[in-house]
Specification:
single chain, alpha+beta, Porin, eight-stranded antiparallel beta barrel, 1 helix, 10 strands, about 55% strand
């Protein structure tokens, strides 16, 4: 009888140890699965801020400095070494990377009346206002998630209010007795434009812009640059 009891106790101990081993192995298996699951879980990065958008309307206001390709004696349209001015741009970006627009400019040539070599009287167009209107196509290249976006554009249209003409006057006190009087006239010409710059968005709706363009009018003597700094409003 005692032998039977001892045998039963041994069997119970073996059964208990076996159950403990199974529980331990099962726990380890579940724990391993859980650790693997946590390690393999991917973290989704937050989306980029939308500084530049599709279907975006832009209104830009800027001041400009306009150096001429030639000095005022050879320039026959602005008739000045440079001009100060202002510009307004209306653009619609069908896609965040490109858009179409209209650009309007006013230029105020910095010029004086003078006499050259005692022979040619040159009136270089004081107190004149020259204007231009162009259609534009712009390519905009926002860089990653940053606020920075370079842009490039082409434009074409008309420029008006500049030009000069000649009038030959008798002047007995001058050599040869003739003075070539150059005076300003208002003529309209075609103008082509190409340029590039960059914008930095302060908010998704307000940005600061800087750019430079080259304006081509009939005859290389009349070409001039336009450096602009301004503010852009996006809607």
């Amino acid at each position: 009888m005692q032998t039977l009891n001892q045998t039963g106790e041994k069997q119970m101990k073996k059964l208990t140890l076996s159950l403990c081993a199974v529980v331990a192995m099962t726990s380890a298996a579940f724990a391993g699965t859980q650790i693997y699951s946590k390690e393999s879980k991917s973290v989704t990065p937050p989306p980029c801020p939308q500084w530049y958008a599709d279907n975006e309307f832009n209104l830009s206001l800027s001041g400009s400095y306009n150096p001429t390709y030639n000095e005022w004696r050879e320039d026959t349209y602005l008739v000045a070494d440079h001009a100060w001015g202002g510009s307004i741009d209306l653009k619609y970006f069908v896609h965040r990377y490109f858009g179409f627009g209209i650009q309007g400019n006013l230029y105020f040539p910095n010029s004086d009346e003078s006499i050259s070599n005692g022979f040619t009287e040159v009136h270089s167009g004081s107190n004149r206002t020259v204007g231009s209107v162009l259609g534009t196509f712009t390519i905009r290249l926002p860089i990653g998630c940053s606020r920075f976006a370079p842009y490039f554009w082409l434009g074409g249209g008309g420029i008006f209010g500049g030009g000069q003409n000649h009038e030959f006057l008798l002047a007995p006190t001058q050599p040869f007795g003739i003075v070539d009087h150059e005076f300003p006239v208002s003529t309209t010409k075609t103008v082509g434009q190409f340029g590039g710059g960059f914008e930095v968005r302060i908010t998704p709706h307000i940005g600061l812009m800087n750019d430079f363009s080259w304006n081509v009018i009939s005859g290389s003597n009349n070409n001039f640059g336009m450096a602009r700094t301004g503010i852009n409003f996006a809607f």
